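G., the chain you wanted modeled:
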Amino acid sequence: MAGPNRDAQSSFWFGWRPHHRQNERDRLDAHGDYEVNVRAELQILALHEKLDLARTVELSRILTLMEQQMERLASIERRLPLAEGQ
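Predicted structure as tokens:
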């Protein structure tokens, strides 16, 4: 009488193992995907920081150029005779 029950148990365990292995592979794949995503996110954040720094430097340079242009314009205006007074 051990035959039918034993066959059922054997098929259960042999059927379960491949399924269990697939679940383990899926879990490992998901963990690997998670690690890749975390690294990608860190790289994107680093790129954002570089872009922010480059933008800040560029804006500072533009502001300096504008200030120099305003000083030159004021100097030119001081040398011109006043149109209203003539």
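Helices lie at 2-79.

Shout if anything looks off.
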